[in-house]
Amino acid sequence: MVDYAKLVQEIERIAGSSALLPPEMCPSYAVEGKVPQVVVFPETVEQIAEILSLANREGATVIPRGGGTKLHWGGIPRQVDIVLGLERMNQILEHEPADLTVTMQAGTRIQALQDRLGEKGQFVPLDPPFPQEATIGGTIATNASGPKRLLYGTVRDFLLGVKVVHADGRISRAGGKVVKNVAGYDLNKLYVGSYGTLGVLVEMTLKLLPRPETERLFFATFPDLASAVRVASQIFQSELRPSAIELLNSRAGALLCQELGISITSGPLILVGIDDVALAAERQYTQMQRYCMAEDSVEIISLSEEKQRRLWNIVRSFSRIVREREAEALICRINVVPSRVGDLFQKAEELEGSTGLPVALLAHFGNGVVF
User: For the whole model, what pTM was predicted?
Assistant: First the structure.
């Protein structure tokens, strides 16, 4: 049995009383209904190492927590003794604009990082769900990628180096701080998607890209699913370079439009992101219009820049919107090859027709990831 009184006393000695959450507030940090005995917010790597070493000796379980946006992902823990909050580990340690690299602590929030890098005309090519709340450590630990992975790739493609604290308190490093880094085993990829099971990610280095000159959105609704799939497939197989291709069935499209506050003709829809120089972005937009004009009853929607930004946030956060609107909704992620996305949508429509259960589908079409 874990001696919780001793555990709390020792953690307070390591991190200070100000780092501990009052006991009455611990229920707000419950994980899958399991309330932790201790919630602590360390400020240094050394404090994290001491806390993990203590937990290892005492047989206490530890759940690392960044912004808390993905704690419902993955397996359900049998026990939750300590929640290790990384919110105070939020410093950008090094940014070398000329080298296109940045090193930061795990608790750095994605949007805050993008805003800081944007001052130098650069960005991390990741767009995970809930960027205002999600942290870089949690994004790496859960391998969370958003719609624009089609053009830019995933976390694995941009992680150069990590510092990790293991369960016994040992600190290790993998990778480095330079883009050309090929010596030894590529252990970085081992930690991507590890969900904290291999250790607590505390620092990481990522490679950057220059911000695109133009970010545009192509938005169209269709009278039927077959037309929407046909156009999405044409765009995906063409010479165009969209940053994202999103396909939504009628029910998901209706939810998205309600959230955005616009009224359009009901039906399946596609959203296509275009990140490029202005002239190339305009050419791609025009070509997408031509693909749509070959179909009947297609409606191309124009949105202001502000609504375009809001729309991408809604797409990234689609599962949360569904959960807020439908408390009993079951949310699944299904991966198929891109050529079978249309078949999956068709089967879902048949399921809805035969059971009466409402099914809302959103697909990262070019990657075959369906929610």
Answer: 0.89
